[in-house]
Amino acid sequence: MSPAQGTRQKITGKITLAKKLAGELKNEVKSLKDLSLKLTSWQTDDTSTLLVALLASVVFLEASDLHLEAQEQDARLRVRIDGMLQDTALLSLKTYGALLSRIKLLSGIKLNVSDRPQDGRFTFVLEESLPIEIRVSSLPSEHGESLVLRILNPKSLKTIKDLGLRKNLLLLFQEEIKKPNGMILVTGPTGSGKTTTLYAFLKSVQKPEIKIVTIEDPIEYHLEGISQTQVAPKEYTFASGLRAIVRQDPDVILVGEIRDQETAGIALQAALTGHLVFSTLHTNDAAGTIARLLSLGANPINVSAALSLIIAQRLIRKVCTACAKTRTATLLELKTIQEGLKDLAKELIPKIPSTLKLIEPQGCAACNNTGYRGRVGIFEAIVADDALETFVSKSPSIGELRAYAQKAGMVSMYQDGLFKVLEKTTTLKEIERVTTE
Contact, 268 vs 302, CB < 8 A? Predict the structure, then answer.
């Protein structure tokens, strides 16, 4: 069956892939190399056919983003898998132009505008599965428009037990999200998995007797049974939306991001008046969170009283189990791991044998020859107890707060990563790549 025979679609807004064709593509496209070869045969005059087959393939390859970039003589197609962009194919300018028009039409982007950025979205449906939202961004570049398609697959959502937490952290998080009020902040750069963690929290606390309301920019995944709202420029901001949400008698509030003094103030006040508030903040680590809130103009007394838990996280790639090999650690690697863990409490430091075995990535078709497949989180957390509240009232620097947290028993993201190296989940090189600032 050709892709055209298995595709039912409207002109704009939504495309659906038939189950039979989905099965064929899933069996035939198991790596980026397979996709590259397939694209050669798919480059026909039927642009709708090409697009639906391309989208289905990158979904099956568990990609998060698809990049289409115009160059002087052709267009480059790249796919982001496990946080890393990989070259996939070169397309003719004719094929690029046809795909560009089709995607803009589907996502509600103006076809005749190419000299300024535009945003849109459409829905891709694999039959008998949840709809997948595709968020589209266009940007004018030297040789034509650059398109990025963000693939928001509901299958990417995880439960709190699937986040990759150490046992003691899992128990801590489960205990904190059961509390009726307070603020839990998740920090980290874009793409570090903050939204996934917050949605895992929401799924854990969701039950009929609890009302949950969110304000997001934009809504990335639709959660049944939760009132989700989306900011709109000028009319419905995080601050105005949050002020309205508090009047909706919620038990739990999710604020997509705290960006300004007004939002910070309202969120903290909500946490102090009987609501459990989840939100995110852009800081490099857990220790920088309080300084960031204070720099936004938040009241120090409210910050220390409202905060329950501060979490910082990153995503690391897992070594592909289909091709990985084990080897004995070098003396330098042994020393690096031992030095990295030496400041932990004695009961947390594992016994490390001199013949320690580490996992080594190789590369195969299953992992697109990268040696890595899938990702997992590394975390650090600061519990906001009475002692921390007293300490924060003295307006400590980020360095002082970090030292305080480590003395209180915090395991840093780097140290959490070292535990995953010892568990043969990932490599030292990957931990250093992600945690080096």
Answer: yes
The sheet with strand 14-17 has its strands ordered as 7-9, 14-17, 118-126, 132-141, 144-152, 65-70, 75-81, 84-91
Q: What is the pTM of this model?
A: 0.91
Q: What is the pLDDT of residues 292-336, one digit of tens each?
A: 999 999 988 899 899 999 999 999 999 999 999 999 999 999 999
Apex CA 290: angle with CA 289 and CA 296, to 5°? 95
DSSP run (H or E) holding 423 = none
Helices (H), 234-312: 238-246, 261-272, 288-295, 300-306
Calculate ∠ Cα 147-152-153, nearest 5°.
Answer: 130
Contacts by 10-14, CB closer than 8 A, 24 or more apart? 11/105, 11/106, 12/105, 12/106, 12/108, 12/122, 13/106, 13/108, 13/122, 13/123, 14/122, 14/123, 14/124, 14/125, 14/131
Sign of CA dihedral 24, 26, 30, 31: positive
Can you list the positions of beta strands (E) in 101-246? 118-126, 132-141, 144-152, 182-187, 212-216, 227-230
Per DSSP, helices labelled H in 342-427 are 386-392, 398-407, 413-422
CA separation for the pair 286, 278 (Å, rounded): 15
